[in-house]
Design brief:
alpha+beta; 22% helix; 35% strand; six-stranded antiparallel sheet; OB fold (Dihydrolipoamide Acetyltransferase, E2P); six-stranded mixed sheet; 2 domains; single chain
Length: 374
């Protein structure tokens, strides 16, 4: 059942196009990630859904009802911003209770709901503190509790973890996923983030991702499968971090065989796939984690890279490389002490994605004759 429908939403501010032709349908009790960099239009989109600002064009439907001209208090939409907007003169208890007092709930019902959400979010001991006494993580929990206590139809989370440090953000992401996927939770979630790792960690098997770029929807589809098999070059450039590496290639024939040729190192035999290819030029894509420091199979392609920079962190090692005159990024899953000007790495042929150079759309993930399924 569709609970939210946007039709042709456009928004201009001082003649600048912020959102252009936004049309989406969101199902009830679904989890949708709005993925986009700063300035993509995520916050503006959420404010339009919440009723804080009006679009210049287009209509908004909630539960099948046109709410384009309705004020925020009549929409049953709750929003959590990336910046704190707690009431500084109120206690934590009163901050959480404020949406319920606004709709004249009884004191008994308010107390029950506030205590329940506080316990779920682990902030029961903070209820009678003031905002200035809270840490960043505690304040963010209060914001989330205030949104959830409202029992809205739609919950909009606008980069709610952005201002937290990495370790706290990671823990909060797990907590939020548990809360939002808990049995009995009836709300529908739209979650905005510029961080693909956060998008993946928050996603479930049924979650979807909408990629927003320069105010336009570039892609919409299932989160995990979109990452495993990126639908287009634009998606592959924006979803992972570090982004996918790209190599220009062309079809060539040698005797009775056909190859996708990027250079002498990267030459994929596609004789068995030649019916798939209708163009002469293609783009080969390769995720940074598909570069391996050890040769595990005779089929792996060895390539010698110029090593420019090594960045080591607890989760792994990012390699900044140069190959064939272009920058290439690699990611190794463990901290590595790498030195020298050159580095030999290995690539499985089946890790290459083949995109149309003309349209940017994914043609297929490469497979050899013995690879089986794509």
């Amino acid at each position: 059942m569709t609970i939210l429908r946007l039709e042709g939403i456009e928004k201009r501010i001082f003649r600048k196009e912020i959102l252009q032709d936004i049309s989406i349908q969101i199902k009830k009790r679904s989890f949708t990630v709005i993925l986009g960099s700063m300035g993509a239009g995520k916050t503006t989109l959420f404010k339009i859904i919440a009723g804080c600002i009006k679009p210049n064009k287009g209509r908004i439907y909630l539960r099948g009802e046109d709410v384009t001209d309705l004020p925020p208090q009549k929409r049953k939409v709750a929003m959590v911003f990336q910046t704190f907007n707690l009431y500084p003169n109120l206690t934590v208890y009163e901050n959480i209770a404020s949406p319920l007092r606004a709709v004249h709930k009884s004191n008994h019902e308010i107390k029950k709901k506030v205590l329940t959400q506080a316990e779920i979010l682990g902030i029961s001991s903070l209820l009678y503190k003031h905002v200035y006494e809270l840490s960043g993580g505690e304040g963010q929990r209060v914001l989330i509790a205030r949104a959830l206590v409202k029992e809205a139809d739609i919950y909009l989370f606008d980069e709610p973890l952005t201002n937290l440090d990495y370790k706290l953000r990671e823990g909060m992401a797990r907590e939020m996923k548990n809360i939002l996927s808990a049995e009995g939770f009836e709300g529908t979630i739209l979650y905005a983030t510029p961080n693909y790792e956060e998008a993946l960690s928050m996603s479930t098997t049924n979650s979807n991702t909408i990629l927003l770029q320069n105010g336009r929807i570039i892609w919409s589809g299932p989160t995990l499968s979109s990452y495993l098999k990126p639908p287009c070059i634009t998606f592959a450039e924006n979803f992972p971090s570090p982004p996918m590496n790209f190599f220009e290639s062309r079809l060539i024939e040698e005797k009775d065989d056909v190859y996708l040729f990027a250079n002498d190192d990267i030459k994929l035999k596609v004789t068995h796939l030649k019916d798939v290819f209708q163009e002469n030029e293609y783009i080969l894509g390769l995720y940074p984690y598909s570069l391996h420091i050890e040769k595990k199979d005779e089929k792996m392609i060895p390539i010698i890279f110029n090593l420019i920079l090594v960045e080591v962190n607890p989760s792994g090692t990012t390699l900044h490389l140069e190959y064939d005159g272009k920058k290439v990024t690699g990611f190794l899953p463990h901290p590595q002490d790498l030195k020298g000007k050159q580095l030999k790495l290995f690539i499985y042929p089946h890790d290459f994605f083949i995109f149309s150079k003309k349209t940017g759309e994914l043609i297929m993930k490469y497979r050899s004759i013995n690879n089986g399924k794509n």
